[in-house]
Amino acid sequence: MQYPGIAETIAADLGNVALLRRMLRITAPSQDVDALLAELRERVLEELDYRREAENQRLLAAYYDGHPTIHIPGIISELSTRRVVTSELADGARFAELAGWSQEERDLAAETIYRFVFRSLYEVHAFNGDPHPGNYLFHGGGRVTFLDFGLVKHFTPNELQPLMQMARHLCVDNDPEAFRRSMEQAGFLRPDAPLSTETIVGHMGVFYETIRQRGRLTITGDYASAVVRRFFDVRSPVAEYVSVPRSYVILQRINLGLFAVLGELSATADWRAIAEEIWPFVRAPASTPMGLSEAAWQAGRPAVTESLA
Questions:
Q1: Which residues contact 150 (CB under 8 A, 6 or more apart)?
Q2: 155 burial class (0-12, 13-18, 19+ CB within 10 angstroms)?
């Protein structure tokens, strides 16, 4: 339930962002600050409308219905309004409890979270932009209940295409020049940047480090911190020429939120092999027992969204 007056207070605060605007123009000189703030304002105001949150939760609950490890509680429509959202009761262990479970259990939970994030993005064209420990309940064997769908960003196929091209060119084709062109086309990199492609890949590569090669890899807290530092590294020679286009602002929570969660779990998996299962431009066969159960689930359900192949 939303506290009375909170929506109006936050809306007023979002309208007075002069200090934040000045700070961003100093720390991110190449960023379209007004577009960034407009995107953040739109997403936050959407989060205050619980009807939209309920619709997001219905969409994802319908898509993942029957999934072997991903569960999303159903919405009780007759008890949900603009200021109140009511869903089915869900219980389970909290993140702090999971930290005391075996590493095998933590790895399975992390694999489910990873699959949820990227399958939602590529299959449902939606990203739940609030990946943090409070939004998960754990049940063992990799089964996870996902909560809180207020901050969901929906993408068009045209918006997702450049992201797929960037991953494909860098990780699959091993074509740095094509990767650079994809960054330029997507608006992440200024086309006339006086930088070598090697410098650009060196700066951006940290964000793809978990998926550039096959093989089991542990996501550590140090790696998660390195990702955050690189994201905010204004001293890098690349910083002057890179920016985050408005459509992808919320998606950066993968870098700032998802990897932090996986780092806290010291999660180990062959992330590249899992990504290949999900990438529309690869569609590799299952690489883990969870992948096999997920493939069986997919084979038995009707298509809900159009493929981006």
A1: 46, 47, 48, 50, 52, 53, 56, 130
A2: buried
Query: How far apart (Å, rounded) are the C-alpha atoms in residues 235 and 244?
Result: 17
> What global pTM score does this model have?
0.84
Q: Which two tokens stand for residue 301?
A: 């359900």
240 falls in which pLDDT band (50, 70, 90)? confident
The DSSP annotation for 149-185 comes to -SSEEE--HHHHHHHHHHHIIIIIS--HHHHHHHHHH
Residues 208-229: pLDDT tens digits?
999 999 999 999 999 999 988 8
Contact call for residues 110 and 269 (beta carbons, < 8 A): yes
* CA distances, 178 to each of 167, 208, 211, 251 (Å): 10, 15, 17, 22
Phi, psi of 158 (to 5 degrees): -65, -30
Half-sphere exposure of 209 (CA within 13 A, CB side): 17
**283 class by beta-carbon count within 10 Å (0-12 exposed, 13-18 middle, 19+ buried):** exposed
